[in-house]
Amino acid sequence: MKCAKCGAEITYDLGYCPYCGAEVRIVPDYNPLDDMLAEQVRDAIGGGETSENELERYRQAVQEKLRQQKQEEQQKREFVQRRSQIEAEEEARRKKRLARRREVRRKKRRLLIGMTAATVGLLTLLSAGIYRSSYSGKIKKGYALAKEQKYDQAIRTFEKAVEKKPARAEAYAGLAAVYNAQEDLDRAEMVFWDAIEANPTSVELYEEMIDFYIATDQETQIPLLLDECEDESVLTALKSYQVKVPKFSLDESKYDEVQELTLTSKAKEIYYTIDGSEPTTDSTKYEEPISIPEGTTTVKAIAVNKKGVPSLTEEKTYTVELPLEDAPVVTPTTGQYYEYTMIEIEVPEGYEAYYTFNGEVPEKDSEDSYKYTEPIEMPEGNTLFSAVLIDKKGRASAVTKRNYTLTYSYE
């Protein structure tokens, strides 16, 4: 016998292992499950002795139940892991979008920095002076100069107003309006971004920037703006501009049959794309479930509220890979025939059938293979007939083989 602790070979006459000193157990381990099973079987059959067969059947039933419970627990763990993975991927995409937008703004600033040098110098001089007019007076004067297309003077006037009250929004809106009139939307947008970064809790500035986006047909930028806002008081005040992304009825996954995707939202409308482009209000309007065909499909969707403000883009990718058909059904069966006989292959929709007469596995592009288009006349003599199904992706099913012997009687 072997030591249960170290595995060394020992004799029965020793009460301990001479190598590790562990006590030698001669009586086998007691398994209470056996007694429990025997008791359950005895109760089930009304008492009496339990046969080994009955005990074994009951033991197998219990073990099968335990196996099913373990399988269900494993499926639950996999579901939780998959959900955590999806949430992590969504968070990673959000952070990636945020980083990309910040990088775009940094590039815009570098492009504009040379153009703003003169403005900075002017503001420095103005800050040392004494303002003789009121803030509202400068705003009024700035718009009057812009109306006369005296854009440089209007810019200087609005910049004076900014210096006077840097937390107010009117002067920034005026500056943006001047740049917009000069068809410089990037510079107009940067006016607001700079103002908000300096005053991140100003609801007024956010409202002015939202109005700017609406006036310039850039509503898709509104959810990006609010997505970057970290101040809860601002988000609460601008709740009417926040639109939740549409809900997708299907999780990202692989499917073995064509699916139907349902999109839902409390917003007024939903728009989506399946070609990889970003959805806008010019994209396909969602009105009925979206068919997800065989292959890989990426669906991007936005929800749009009554004000015309969209949500962020929700995106999910689905893969549908239909299972292969089994080996084709070929008639007649293997056997010996004595009269004219036709061979037929059942071809399911979405498949083509190919066959050979020499026992070789049929292939789509092989010279020895033939495409099945109609019933085939069985050749005289001995034939090793093979048939296969091939789907649209070129995947081949299992092969069906038939051994035919056709002998005509010429009496």
From TrEMBL:
Keyword Transmembrane: yes
Entry-linked Pfam families: CHB_HEX_C_1, TPR_19
Entry coiled-coil feature ranges: 48-89
Every GH29D-like beta-sandwich domain range: 253-311, 332-400
Matching SMART domains: TPR
SUPFAM superfamilies assigned to the protein according to its UniProt record, in alphabetical order: TPR-like
Transmembrane segments: 111-131
The TPR repeat ranges on this chain: 135-168, 169-202
InterPro entries attached to this UniProt entry: GH29D-like_dom (IPR059177), TPR-like_helical_dom_sf (IPR011990), TPR_rpt (IPR019734), Ycf3/AcsC/BcsC/TPR_MFPF (IPR051685)
Protein name as annotated: Flp pilus assembly protein TadD
